[in-house]
Design a protein that fits this description.
Layout lengths: L2 H11 L5 H14 L5 H10 L3 H14 L5 H10 L7 H15 L3 H7 L4 H11 L8 H6 L7 H7 L3 H10 L5 H14 L5 H6 L7 H11 L5 H7 L5 H13 L6 H9 L5 H13 L5 H9 L4 H14 L5 H6 L6 H14 L4 H7 L5 H13 L8
Length: 378
């Protein structure tokens, strides 16, 4: 599917009859950061009947950072908090202040403040304006205001690229780490070779590996595959996560090996599952079914989620049976997985609604509700 076709499909899905489809569409539009989505997302945030859809649309608008959404986002924040903390509220207030006075000077003043949290707010606020004149200041606070400065610099475009490359080579390891993060956020493919070189930098190699995944360039596959054999389990996990973000068939063999290694760290195996899901690897259903019954509870939870996104109706009964799993993480994934599979799950859920465990019966009722099931309609 072309980028334009994907975009049009997601816009259409904002009006889908099923709320989960609308919620997912809003979130995906936020990741795309395409300003053409601003007006449809504003309509979803302000008018959708479902609070989760409204919340997803608000998050998407906050991620796109188009000034048209500023006032509606501030108003939305009063009525329904889609933020995890007060930080984003302060960011929006500072953006509004700068817009109202027609100058980014209030943000610059905050960026120069000695208070670290104020610097972080200012760094995020600058991303709304993408003013190249602020790059030197952002580089100067790259370490104390992390990860906010790195995130902002990654969105500044061409003007920030060389300063980030330069920061990748300074003596301060914290600044090098944040420069790697910024290059990842930029998604600029010119950063691939410099980041590959930093995989040998023991102080920042994990950040470099994750940045390569954000960029998603196939040139990183060989180096990241080699990192799957690293002595450090966290480096192996970073490598697996990044390979999972590079949607290339070449990642299949190394990620299958990771998934099948029961002695591997659960986070690395979990990343392998989602990478294999992303490329719809041959035999995915059997791999994810095995994960659903794995000895590691986190791998079982990831297997449940992957089976849902795979959309194979053969997974319905095993997923319903997985409500007998003692791990809450598996329980949390089952409703979403069954909703992803769709209406074919309704009749088996109705049958299972006589389960002796009250918690399971309540979870089934919640899942049927998410499937928009109305009694006597099936």
């Amino acid at each position: 599917m072309s980028a334009d076709s994907e975009f049009e499909t997601l816009i259409a899905d904002l009006h889908h009859s099923r709320r989960k489809v609308r919620e997912d569409a809003a979130a995906k539009l936020g990741h795309l950061r395409d300003v053409r989505a601003v007006e449809p997302l504003l309509a979803a945030m302000q008018n959708d009947e479902d609070k989760d859809v409204r919340s997803a649309a608000a998050w998407a608008l906050n991620n796109i950072q188009d000034i048209r959404a500023l006032e509606p986002l501030i108003e939305n924040l009063k009525g329904y908090s889609f933020m995890r903390s007060e930080h984003e509220g302060r960011v929006l207030d500072l953006v509004k202040q700068a817009r109202d006075v027609g100058s980014i000077e209030p943000i610059i003043d905050s960026l120069r403040d000695s208070d670290e949290k104020t610097q972080q707010v200012a760094a995020n606020a600058l991303a709304w304006f993408k003013d190249a004149s602020t790059i030197d200041l952002l580089i100067a606070v790259l370490e104390p205001a992390r990860p906010y400065s790195a995130w902002t610099l990654g969105r500044m475009g061409e003007a920030a690229f060389q300063p980030l490359i330069d920061a990748l080579n300074v003596s301060d390891a914290d600044v090098r780490s944040e420069a790697a993060r910024g290059l990842g956020h930029s998604r600029d493919r010119r950063a691939v070779e410099p980041l590959l070189e930093r995989l040998s930098d023991n102080q920042i190699r994990q950040h470099a590996a994750l940045a390569l995944g954000e960029i998603g360039d196939g040139r990183a596959i060989d180096a990241l595959t080699a990192a799957l054999s690293d002595d450090d389990y966290l480096m192996r996990c970073c490598a697996a996560n990044s390979l999972s973000d590079i949607h290339d068939p070449r990642i299949a063999e190394p990620l299958i090996a990771v998934l099948n290694n029961v002695d591997e760290y659960w986070g690395t195996r979990r990343a392998a599952i989602f990478g294999l899901l992303a490329i719809r690897v041959a035999g995915a259903f059997d791999l994810f079914m095995a994960a659903l019954h794995d000895s590691d509870q986190e791998v079982r939870a990831a297997g449940a989620r992957a089976l849902g996104y795979l959309g194979d109706e053969r997974a319905i009964e095993p997923l319903i049976a997985a409500w007998d799993d003692e791990f809450w993480g598996v329980w949390e994934e089952i409703p979403t997985a069954l909703v992803e599979i769709g209406d074919a799950a309704i009749k088996p859920l109705i049958v299972a609604a006589k389960h002796p465990d009250l918690r399971v019966r309540e979870a089934i009722a919640e899942t049927l509700d998410k499937l928009d099931y109305v009694p006597d309609s099936h």
